[in-house]
Structures are given as C-alpha cells and as structure tokens.
Design a protein that fits this description.
The strands form seven sheets. An eight-stranded antiparallel sheet has the order 14-16-15-18-17-12-13-20. A three-stranded antiparallel sheet has the order 4-3-19. Strands 7-9-8 form a three-stranded antiparallel sheet. The C terminus is likely disordered. The protein is of the alpha+beta class and about 750 residues long. Helix 9 crosses helix 14, helix 13 crosses helix 14 and helix 22 packs across helix 25. Among the domains are: about 170 residues, no CATH class; about 80 residues, no CATH class; about 130 residues, no CATH class; about 60 residues, no CATH class. About 50% of the residues lie in helices and about 10% in strands.
C-alpha cells in the first residue's frame, strides 16, 4: 500500500485509526480484511437514518463497504480539506467547500442560495437544519426543478384554475415547496380524459335513441335497473299461473309464511317482505303501479313510474308485460352507451366545463410552466447535494469509527452506534444493549458470543414496544431470572419498563464459577428438603384422614395381625449392611486424613475444593477468553469481519455493579433491623490459619530450634528431628530420631 496507516490494537485485533484527511481519501486502499465490519443495517442502530439512506445507494436497507468508500470519496472531493469530516460538526463553513470543480462550484452556489432563501444571506456557515426544511427553502420560489407546478406558479387565473381542476380530479403531486401541484403525466392524463368524456357525449348528441327521455334518461335508466329483476319475476309468475291455475297459491307464498311474519314486528323494508312478489299473482294480470303493491317495493315502483314509464308511455295505472318489454327496449341504447363511458375521472366537472377547458389554451400554458421548472433541475438537485455534503461532514466520522474500526466502542469515550442504551437491573447497569427484532432468532446465533445475555421486552406508557439483548459482564447471575423487572434508558434518555423474557447463561466471572458448584449443591439440597417436607406433610395428612375414617367406621371384630414379610426383613438387612459399609469406608478415609499433620489436612481440604471447583473455573476461564461481540451483532444483520473480543477487564467496564460513590459518608446510625454478623466463622478461620502455620513450621523443627535457643534445650517446645546416623542405618537403627521434650 502506498499510504501509511496508523493502527491501534483492541478487542484482540488491529484496528485502523483515522488521523487526517489523507487517511479518508485513501480509504479504498485499506485492505478490507482489516475492517471491523463489512456491512450494517440502516435501521435498528443509533445513527441518523437520513444519512444512512443517502449512503445506501442501492436502497436495499444495508450499508456496505463499497458504499462507505464512495461516500467518503465524494465528500472528500467536495472539500478543500477532507480532514473537516473528522471534526464531525453540525455546520459546514462555506469557505471549506471546494469550488475548483464544477460540482463543487454548483454546491457552493446552491448553499448560498439556500441561505438567501432563508433570509441569512450574510451567513458563512450552513447547517443540517438549514438544508432539512426544503419547503421553507423553496417557499419563495415559483420554480424549483422538480417538474411539479402548483397553481400558484401560474401567471393567470385561468391556468391556475385548470391546475386546481386537475388536482381535484386526479390528485396532486407534492412540490418541493410543500404545495400540491401537477406534473406532465398528470396533465396529459387529464386532457386525455377530458377529450374522451367530450367524445362520449357527442355520441349521444348524434343519436336520439340513446337519450329517449332527454336529460332524464340517466335517472329513468337507474330506476329501471333498480327494480328490473323484481318486475321480471312478477310477470314470470303470472305466466306460470296462466299456464296452470293450481300454482297460484304456491306462487303467492303459503299461508304459513304469513303466519310466521305476524309473530314479529313488521317493517316494509324487512327482508321477509322484500322476498314476496311485487303484487298478487294471477294468470295474465298486469302490474299495478299504485294500488295492491308489496309495501317493501312501493317506493321503487313509484320512482319507476315517475321517471321511466310516464315519460316513455304516458300516464298508467297498470303496466302490462308487453309495455314493460317496450320500456326495456327504449332504454337499451342508453344502457349500451353508458356501458362504455369514457373520461369518468373528469365527469364531476360537467360537460360544459370540460369543453371549456378543451377549447382554451391551458394545456400548452401548463406544459410551458413545467418545462420552465425542469430547466432548473440541476440547480435544485445541487441543493440536495448541499444537504448530502453537510450530513456527510457531520456523520461520516461516527460511521467510520463504528464500521471500519470500533474505536468508539473500545475507547469508552462515546457509545457505539449499536449500543441502544443502558439497562438497570439487579443492582447493575449494562451498557452493552442492542436492539433485537426477534429474540428467538437472535438467541440462535447470539449464544456463540459466550456472553451472559438477558433478553428484555421494553414498553412505554404510550404503547411503544421494543426488545433488547443486554450483556451482563459483571457481578453474578444468582438473581437474574425470567420475569425480573428493570428500567431501560435509550440513547434519547427516555425510560422504558424492561422485563426479562429469555436468558442465555454463560460464565460472568471466574469467581462466580468457583462458588457455582456449592451454590448448586445448596439449591439441590433445599429443593430435596422441600420435596421431602411436602411429601411428609402429605403423608401425615393422609394418615390422619385414614385414622379418622377408621375411627368413624370401627369394626368390633379384632383385625387379623399382619404377618412379617421375611423378604422385606432380608432386604432391609442388606440395605443397612451396605450403608454401614459405606460409613465405615468414609470413616476409614477420614481417620487416614486425620492421622496426617494438621498442615497436610488443610492442604487436602484445599485440594478437595480445587477438585470440585476447578473444572467449573477452567470452563469459565476458557469461555471468558472466547467472549465475542461478533455473533451478537451478526444476529442483528451486521457483517462483522473479525473476532471482536471482550476480555475480562474490558467486559467489567461494560457492566457497573452498585457501589457507594467516592467520598460518600455512611450515617453513624445503626440499622435496628440489621442481622448481627456471626463472629465465630472469623474466629474459626483465624484458629485454623494459626494451627496451619504452627503445624507447618513445627514440621521442619523451627519451633524446637527457636525455643531451645530462648529457653534452653531442656525446656524446648516442639519436635526435634535429629540428623541422620549413617552407621545406624546398617544395623537396622532408624535414620532419624524424634525427640520430644515438653516441660
């Protein structure tokens, strides 16, 4: 590589440190194997989503390494000094923009124009707030390059009125100024609909059969269609009655159906009545138009008579089947014409207004306005580039130190983008909390992190919900369990109610692992004692119940004495013999240990503790060395590139255990309910330590030597080990002679 980089080591791997603009411009030369991450999601992290969307050029919801390189390259080329990006400031000095290139020159001009539009023409800096409100930026301009023209952009009232009509019929497009407007596709569609609507009406104007009732044809046809099926049903029944008079009773419904109706409240709109014929059925009978009608259909028949039959046939009291057929024939042309209605979107304007619009020059005027607006597209797009540049100058440094490297995470000066907030639970605060969309899916991969994870459902009073995974890297897990409640503070400082819903257990510390076997043993004993006590209580209750029942139903006859089961006695004898043998073996081992010097007994006990706790501590030590942030982030959609380790010292900084603050003073008042601590364990420990030390030094004869010098050899304490006698060995005399002198 031609560029010289600076690296720092954290998390078990080397990470790049950005110190100058030259580092940024050479980012494409940095081997991606040295990047901390290669991709991250655009949602679910503590980062400005608008900036991430600008970097995400393919709009797939993920930011990848090539997109980060492209963003840094572009921003660096638009600045005189790319090192401005490393400052991460909210505003950008106009003097920092590189105007030696055409694009940079355009961005500088657009930045100045934005400030002019906002009434800050003398400003020398532009901020994200200045570029974010595009509606305010373009409020004073008629044309803004987006190809959308609001009614206010029209030079005359007539054109503005047509633009309003287009918006009213087809809906509008939002202009950059925030106003509704129209684009060229809307204009073309509107005038095409107007022409089609006008041509459709011309067909009816040239054919009298289409509108037999004139302007009232539409109402007459609607009244005809509304009752057509019912009238056809009536005349069909009458034809059947004429064919066979025996069917009249059935065609007019059975008497039992009327009896069922009389048992309830009647309504002329009731479905039961609507299902009856329009009028009483008789062979060859005409349809009465006024009297003798089904009450549920009386209004519909009256409307048919007024709007269709009377205009077409004249005044009628009854309607024959032939006359009904003629009404349908006269309205058939209208039905066919109405079936292919065109330009329905503009129908509400009315034919007169539509033809007025078509006869004017509004289409050409609006098209000219749109072309004039689009001519400023490059200048307006440059305004969007100003926002992009200002955002990149503020946010790229944060992205680089949480993507290319994890400097923010390991420096502990700032929270990383993937840290969602802080969880307070069980006297601890956990800083490594990440947003989780699905706890089950996350846990499938998160377990590989070898980290104690607690998944919590978080809620707020307004109904907001979220799920987090919190890493516990300090304290112990004795009181961490599903159902415990805590408080979660997000990065905005808002508090959430947090409830533990799932736990992935892993070692938190070696100290916890040392005591884990004994705690498990105590819990197991407590559970067994509780089970035995419950069983004994149940057995006692059963015996009391049996005794009460026996006393209540006592029989005067003497019960037959129970026989002794020889097999049971033999089995009990074998069991007691086995128990006795076991106790004898244990006692033998204990006596053998007690025969050792006291200091060796202590070492045996220490060795026993190590045998019990050693495996647990070894496993914990191995897992703590393998603790890795990668799976936690990979489960959230990140592409972590290395083994991002969290060793014991660093893990301890991620979880703070409750402690009195520095300089705090404790009240002199005594807790009246405090349990007095037992003093005997300390006393026993002191005695054991003293005896161990005495036994150890006495074994090497140090007590005897010191006391013999102080008190004389005849009054010396302890055990004296005489030097070996070479000659005595050959004649069977012990090589050492122990002389004990206790005055």
């Amino acid at each position: 590589m031609s560029h010289q980089w600076t690296f720092f080591r954290a998390g078990g791997f080397d990470q790049v440190r950005f110190t100058s603009g030259a580092d940024l411009l050479a980012l494409d030369q940095l081997d991606q194997k040295l990047w901390a991450a290669l991709a991250c999601p655009t949602r679910g992290i503590e980062f400005d989503t608008r900036t991430l969307d600008l970097i995400d050029s393919d709009k797939d919801g993920r930011v990848r390494a090539p997109e980060v390189i492209a963003a840094v390259k572009w921003a660096g080329s638009m600045l005189k000094d790319a090192g401005v990006i490393l400052k991460g400031e909210d505003s950008l000095s106009l003097a920092a923009i590189n105007d030696s290139t055409p694009e940079g020159k355009q961005i500088l001009a657009s930045a100045k124009q934005i400030l002019v539009n906002l009434g800050r023409s003398d400003a020398t800096n532009i901020s994200i707030g200045d570029t974010a409100d595009t509606a305010k930026i373009f409020a004073a301009t008629k044309f803004n390059g987006d190809g959308v023209v609001p009614a206010a952009s029209a030079a005359d009232a007539g054109t503005a009125s047509v633009i309003s009509d287009i918006i009213g019929c087809l809906g509008g497009e939002t202009d950059r100024s925030g106003q509704p407007g129209v684009n060229q596709s809307k204009v073309d569609q509107f005038f095409a609909d107007c022409q089609a609507f006008s041509d459709w009406h011309k067909k009816s104007e040239s054919d009298d059969a289409i509108l037999p009732i004139g302007a009232g044809t539409a109402a007459g046809a609607a009244a005809y269609s509304a009752i057509k099926s019912k009238v056809d049903d009536y005349f069909g029944r009458c034809r059947l009655a004429a064919f066979d008079p025996r069917s009249v009773a059935a065609l007019n419904r059975q008497e039992s159906e009327y009896l069922a109706l009389t048992a309830k409240d009647l309504s002329i709109s009731a479905a039961e009545i609507s299902g009856f014929p329009l009028a009483r059925v008789e062979g060859g009978k005409a349809l009465p138009l006024k009297d003798g009608l089904n009450p549920a259909w009386a209004d519909a028949v009256g409307k048919l008579n007024a709007e269709a039959i009377k205009p077409l046939l004249g005044e009628r009291a009854v309607l024959t089947e032939a006359e009904w057929a003629s009404v349908g024939a006269k309205l058939a042309s209208y039905a066919g014409w109405a079936g292919w209605k065109a330009g329905a979107a503009v129908e509400k304007l009315g034919l007169a207004r539509v033809r007025e619009i078509l006869g004017g020059g509004a289409k050409a005027a609006i098209t000219q306005l749109i072309e004039k607006d689009k001519a400023l597209e490059s200048e307006a797009n440059a305004i969007a580039s100003v926002e992009r540049l200002v955002r990149y100058c503020r946010d790229l440094r944060t992205l680089l130190t949480n993507f290319v490297s994890f400097e923010d995470f390991y420096s502990r000066k700032r929270k990383a983008t993937f840290q969602a907030g802080t969880l307070y639970l069980d006297g601890r605060s956990c800083d490594l909390c990440v947003n989780v969309s699905d706890a089950g899916k996350h846990a499938a991969l998160g377990g590989l992190a070898k980290t104690y994870l607690a998944y919590c459902d978080c809620t707020r009073p307004n109904g907001e919900k979220m799920t987090i995974a919190a890493a516990f890297t300090g304290g112990d897990g004795d009181f961490l369990m599903v159902g415990r409640n805590g408080v979660f503070y997000d990065r905005k400082g808002r508090d959430w109610d947090a409830t533990v819903t799932k736990i992935l257990e892993n070692p938190i510390s070696v100290r916890q692992a040392f005591w884990a076997p004994y705690k498990k043993l105590v819990r197991m004993i407590e559970e067994q004692v509780a089970k035995r006590a419950a069983a004994a209580d149940s057995a006692a209750d059963a015996k009391l119940a049996a005794a009460a029942a026996a006393a209540a139903n006592a029989d005067k006859t003497k019960p037959e004495p129970k026989k002794v089961d020889v097999g049971t006695v033999a089995a009990l004898g074998v069991a007691f013999g086995a128990i006795g043998s076991a106790f004898a073996a244990i006692a033998g081992y204990a006596i053998g240990v007690l025969n050792l010097p006291f200091w060796q007994v202590c070492l045996v006990l220490v060795g026993l503790l190590l045998v019990i706790s050693g495996p647990s501590m070894l496993i914990a030590w191995l897992k703590l060395r393998q603790r890795n942030l990668g799976p936690i982030l990979d489960a959230n959609g990140w592409a972590i590139n290395g083994r991002v380790k969290m060793n014991v010292p660093f893990g301890g900084s991620l979880t703070a255990v409750s402690a009195l603050p520095a300089g705090a003073r404790s009240s002199a008042e005594h807790d009246p309910f405090e349990e007095r601590p037992a003093t005997w364990p300390r006393f026993v420990l002191m005695v054991v330590v003293a005896c161990f030390l005495y036994s150890l030094v006495n074994h090497f004869g140090l007590v005897h030597r010191v006391s013999s010098k102080v008190l004389g050899s005849d009054k010396a304490f302890g055990t004296y080990v005489a030097p070996a006698n070479p000659t005595a060995v050959n004649v069977g005399v012990p090589a050492t002679t122990t002389i004990t002198n206790i005055p």
